[in-house]
Design goal:
Length: about 1200
Amino acid sequence: MAQVDKVFYQLTISISKALNPAEFPLKVKHARAAIIGTFHSGGAHSFWAIALRQPLQENRITAWKFCHLLHKVLREGHPLSCQQSLRQRAMLTELGKLWGHLKDGYGSCIKQYTKLLVTKLEFHDRNPRFPGSMVLKKGELEQIGGNDINYYFHLAVEMFDYLDEIIALQDAVFKSLTTFHVSSMTSAGQCRVAPLIPCIQDSSPLYDFLVRIMFKLHSNLPAELLTGHRERFRTAFGQLSKFYDESRSLQYFMTLITVPQLPPNAPNFSSQVDFGEYQAPVVVIPEPEPDEFVDNLVDMTVQQQRPPEVKLEPPQPAIDFEKLIIERDELIRHLQLEVDRLGRSVKSCNVENRELQSRFEEQMATMHAELSQAQDEMELLKMQKDELELKAETAPTLEQKAIAEEERAKASEEKFLKLKTMYGQIRDEHVKLLRTHGEVSKQLATSTKMVSEVTKEKEDIRCKLEDLEHQQARVEENLQQSSNVAKQENEELQTKYKELQEKYEDMEANKSAEIAELRITCENLSKSIEEAKNAHDELQSTHESLSGEKDTLSADLEAQKANHNEEIANLHQEIEQLKGEVAKTSKETGELQEDLERQIVSLQSDKNGLDEKLVDVQKMLEEREKSFEVLQCKYDEEVVKGNELKSELEGKISQVEEEREMLKSEKENLCQEVEGLRSELQTKCEELQTTQTSLEGELGEAKGEVEVLKGNLEEMKAKHELLVQNYDRLMVDRSDRECELQDLLHQQTELEEKHVATLETIGNLEAALRDAQIHGEVILRSLLEACVKSSEGLATRAVSEDEFGGGAAGSAAYFGLLAEELVDMLTKLGLGHEQYVADNASVEPFARKVIMAGHLMATVQMQGAIVCSSTSDIEYGEQIAEELKDWYNKHHIALFESLLSRSDTTSTGNVLNATKTHLQAIAERVGALSKKLDPTENIGDMFEEELLGMDKAIEEAAKRIEEMLSESRASDSGVKLEVNEKILDACTSLMRAIRVLVQKSRLVQGEIVAVGKGGATAKEFYKRNHQWTEGLISAAKSVAQGANFLVVAANKAVSGDAKHQLDLVVAAQEIAASTTQLVVASRVKAPRGSSNLAALGAASKNVTQSTATVVATAKDCTKRLEDSQDLDLEKLTVHQAKRMEMELKVRVLELEQALESERLLLAAFRRKNYQSEVDGAKI
């Protein structure tokens, strides 16, 4: 056996074993053999050749295992497996539809599995750079997609479809398990669940690709465009997470695959932070356990006990050292992985501890920084207060500036009035200058000078007004700042005092909560020490409880620090809010001054109340400190007791002592932290007291400052009102004057522009009129004469031409179309002439119509001559030709001469009407002439129709024979079926040979027409050789009739008795004779040495051989049917045999007589038919 045959044989055995109908999961060694077979054969051809012969449509278990095996081959087989399996999509689809009707659980699963496999094949066909295992190297996805966002968009849609099919399959599998109550640990359950392993292997990289593609799409496209993608991802994410969770819970998968773990929430694609934290899910397939090493069945110790003389023992089996080395390497690798994992866990614990320590340090530093910021803010507030005092002192100087600005505004008003009077004079002078055109240039020069001076003065006024506005704004700002200083300082002090009081209360509450928590921790420690006396096993639990309490303490400390941070942030926010409120309260200065006194009184009362509260708070703090000291003493006592218990248990458990020492050190650290917090609280209380005293002093100072500022504010208020009134009046006057000045300047510029534009247009129009008068008539006349002469030249040249070629020559219908087109063009020409006479501007369309009319007249005359010369009625044709010639000579010269005249339009219209009527009469006579054409005119069309009919008859005959063959296979059997199949196969081969013969004859005829037609068309060639064409037509009719007769004879032979086989012989001979006539007719005019003619001869021989085959088959089948119908003569009596012999002789005589009569009838029919064909040819 050759090596290739041996490999194929082994592959056949492996696949047949893998697809056995037993309800067990697919064995790994059989699947591995099939995968290796694809690499031996270089693809999946051998796999499919073996798999298609398995009972996939008979057994559901075989079909299910086949889908599983195919999935593994596509994933792990030869790289060409996907490409070569693509042609089997239809088979997979039909297999799924077949088993989809089964309702036992496997049917729906097979249907979904085939859909998944078809989707996988189509995906790899559209994306050939993705391997079957869907595993890509790092950066390979970016190489495949490049920078094409459209590719990534469509690739995501394809991957979503792929993932949907995987999810649908696993849903069907788990539903079948729950519906039929099948356990995954049974063989039936494992058979159903096993294909989910490659599904998990496919879905994990698909999810990874989708996440990366979605992040890339969101970084390059708007979020609204990707709404559909996000919705599909969310649904797929939930379904995939459920699939992995259910698979992870199956005990069957524990040793076969490590199911990946997806995050609890889908990633946020609009945030690049999530992409940085994203980790791809990993699927791990453990390596298959190596085959157990089978020791020698013979006890080797016995050999050692034997005497050394015996040396002819068989050799020991060789030890597989490579396998032992592999096992050792795997064990070493496994231990290294464990060591690495433990090292990473230790490192992560150390890193977490360091991070916690650094967080605590950072929080303490931020608290100190915030305290320093609060002190800086207090200093800034003091600086602002000093600045406001300085601004209040400089307020009188602002009044002087306001008075000076009023004086300047008055001076600017006087200048503006002077400018207004001057501008009125200028406008009057400008109106006078417009009336007198001669003095325009001089007045324009003076007016431009005046306008420039006015614009300069206007700019000066604008600058002064802007300065006034800036100064007025500064005065208002100073007034607002000086009026709001007192209220701002008082409000800030009051709010600061309240904030400090609330902060003190919060710190006190936190302190009490910490003391309570410490008390709880002390109680827990005492309980844990007492429980340590009971048993050695409970010591570990106490250790865990103490570590948990430590965590709670650290969490509480972090919470307290966070509260401090929040309080400081709230202080900053409130300061900013106060700044905003200061800006808003600028308009309410008067009312707030009255409220200040009330607020001062209320602040004094609040201060007294706060002093009392502070005293109470101090007392509470002292009491709580005392209680804390008591608790601390109790705690120390409990620690002493714990130390005593620890000394008693030292001899029993040394390890527990070490753990307790560690706990003790942690406890001391916590105590130190608590003491540190207490010291911080005390320092904060002292700071609050100092701030309280400073605030009281600042309040006293603020009272005096408020009283001083009251008088200043009243004075500034009155001055501010006066300044505002003056400023409003100045702004109104200024805006009115500016509007008037702008209107005047705008009117002046418009008038100047209009004057200049009118002068320019007048000059341009005069020059254009002179040029148009000189050149217009000459150009129009020359253009018209050129058009008329060119048209006349076209018409006269067409008359002088002798050759009238073209595909439309001799067609009366084409002449009629040209005549109608010429009539329409003549009517349009009359309208165009009238428009040209009325308006010279329409000369271009009129010239085009003239040229077109001349061309059409020449074409009509030429086509009419061709029609008349090609008709069979020569005399009638000559009459029409003379009339057409008279029409052309009579009308075309008169028509073109009348078109040159521009005065008399009526004469031109009369000439056009006479030309049209005469042409219509000629067209009617040509139409009557077309009815008298030669009957061989349409012989080419008849030939094409007969060839099409022959092709159609052959096609219908072949289809009918195929239908009869299928009907016979469905209804007959035995000898009858065998006879019918032979007859119909012979007829089918005959029809195929005839079809080839007809095709070759067409090629020969096309070659004949191409060589013999010359410059004429194919129809003219057929018309010129009409007798040969009629022979081809009769041959085509004979072939079509013979095909129909062959179908009828075949139907009789199949459905009738043996006597009808002779009809089939006659039909075959008749159609062979018809094809011979077609070959002879084609051979008559074919060029010598033609390759198509040689091919036609070969096709004719094939037809002859096929006819002989049909005749021989019919005779053989007749004989077989007769043999099958022979009687058993041994069972007949002598009388019966004699009687049958007489009947047969009579039957033979009758048949001979019928044969003679039929032969005579056939001869007469042939003579008659031949005579009718000859008469028809003569006609």
